[in-house]
Amino acid sequence: MKSIYNVLKRPRITEKATFQKETGNQVVFEVDPSANKIEIKEAVEKIFKVKVKAVNTINMKGKPKRVGMYFGKRAGFKKAIVTLEAGHTIDFIEGV
């Protein structure tokens, strides 16, 4: 089993993630590609001391990009949308 600190990489703070946090009590994380929903749920509950209601995962493909005449691709990643129980919140950045 992986360490809980290796499962979660970083929070994904975007406009859509902020909207989901405000309306649906959901938080978005970038996670280890080999992590499953059970490991993600345990990691979030132990690190942030909250109750998790559900975990949805998405494998995001890298977008093709171009710099001058050279073509390349951004790296893909795995994203987890964690729904928290009512009354529980995780605050990353407030008042920005």
What does this entry look like structurally?
By secondary structure, the protein is of the alpha+beta class. The chain has one domain (4-84): Alpha-Beta Plaits (2-Layer Sandwich), CATH 3.30.70.330. Helix content is 27%, strand content 36%. The strands form two sheets. Strands 1-2-6-3 form a four-stranded antiparallel sheet. A hairpin with a 2-residue loop joins strand 4 and strand 5. The longest helix is centred in the middle third of the chain and has 12 residues, at 37-48. The radius of gyration is 15 Å and the shape is globular. The N and C termini lie far apart (37 Å). The mean pLDDT is 92.
Order of helical and strand elements = HEHEHEEEE
Number of strands: 6
Query: Approximately how much helix is present in the residues?
Result: 25-40%
Q: Which spans of ≥5 residues are poorly predicted at pLDDT below 50?
A: none
Reading off the top of the CATH hierarchy, the class is best stated as Alpha Beta
Q: Biggest sheet, in brief?
A: 4 strands, antiparallel
Number of domains: 1
Query: Superfamily at the CATH H level?
Result: RRM (RNA recognition motif) domain
Q: How would you write the strand order of the largest sheet? A: 1-2-6-3
* Oligomeric description of these chains: single chain
Mean pLDDT equals 92
Helix-strand makeup class: alpha+beta
CATH architecture: 2-Layer Sandwich
How much beta, percentage-wise? 35-45%
Radius of gyration: 15 Å
General form: globular
CATH-defined topology: Alpha-Beta Plaits
> Ends: how far apart?
37 Å
Specify the number of helices.
3
